[in-house]
Amino acid sequence: MPPDPEGRIVHGFSNNEDAVLVKAPPAGMALVQTVDILGPIGNSARLFGQTAAANALSDVYAMGGIPWSVMNVAAFPSPENPDDAPISVLAEIITGAMEKVAEAGAVLAGGHTLDDEYIKFGLAVTGAIDPAKAARNDGLVAGDVLILTKALGTGILATGIKAKWPGFEEAEKEMYRWTTHLNTAAAEVIRAMGLKAATDITGFGLGGHLLEMAKGSGVSAELDCSALPFMDQAEELASFGLIPAGTYRNRDHASCHTTVSSSADELRSTLVFDAQTSGGLLLAVPQERVQEACERLNALNEPAFIVGRILPMRDKKEQLIIA
Amino acid sequence: MLIDTRGLSCPQPVLMVFPHLNGAEPIDVLVDNNASQENVSRAARKQGWNVDIKTEADGIVRLELRK
Q1: What pLDDT, in 10s, does the model give residues B16-28?
Q2: Counted domains in chain B
Q3: A156 in B contact zone (CB under 8 Å)
Q4: Residue A202 sits in a domain of what CATH number?
Q5: Quick one: which of A46, A109, A320, B36 has the fewest CB in 10 Å?
Q6: Does this complex have an ipTM over 0.90?
Q7: How far is CA A237 from CA A95, A240, A245, in A?
């Protein structure tokens, strides 16, 4: 159980209560709420739990929020045959998740487990945020520079791991190294700098999420293929055709708003859309504050990859330009 | 050689084709979705094969892999 030093849980579920009383965040703060659940990724129950928790918490971090309390959401098939996953697997998943919830400084308010055909796990997360300072999906401004805080490639690596491709054990370590990492530091930079626009990179891939932001903000966005950071093995595995169908779907879905320059690397222009699990935050930073943002991230031991910039609309249309 | 990957999703089609890319015997691969088509083509080209794409009926594509 994550610790609760401030006594946020006023009345818990220890005596079979069906709901939980949680203390509200300090006056003036708003709640930021989200829920996200995943199917298993990789072969470690505990690291999958950590990943699913980091993935759900990330939606709160993307707005600059601070996780306050969480609820587990789990689906697990009742073990009936010797080959079925034992219930200890669910316990491992929850253990991993709670490690990340504790690291995030949130408390566990409860949860629900459903007997289901497939394993799924995630969190409903409540965070606290100053509503005037929340970073938004639709706050991009022409001239902003885009900083990404994690390398890309979870979709590719997960496919390589599933295929047991040579080197998959190392690929799994590399994938979990990134997916279990909380986006706490990037959220801290959003708050410290008062950044107006950010998102977290998940299922639609960097390209898909950036295009969503561009459409919401009435701007175009340019990604520099040569500057994109990739996890170890991601490009190699992709070159052998270990690219998940979701990545192609993301690319095709965005195609009528996407322009790929002739100089852009063909493989990378597809991997821009690789579906990420627990990806990094994409921060939009005014040009004159880019150095400050990078220094702040690095001071918190967080990578800062400059991957693109925001441009005015092109031909009155929001465009994603892959250069 | 004919490899039928219809009804299978990634990474299965690549895994079925890949072991045969070490040889030189012509390979025809049937695929029924875009991801399989692109992935099998990538794997083959990476190993130095030419890929000819022939569209057949009912959304089926035949990839003719030739060394």
Answers
A1: 999 999 999 999 9
A2: 1
A3: no
A4: 3.90.650.10
A5: A46
A6: yes
A7: 31, 5, 14
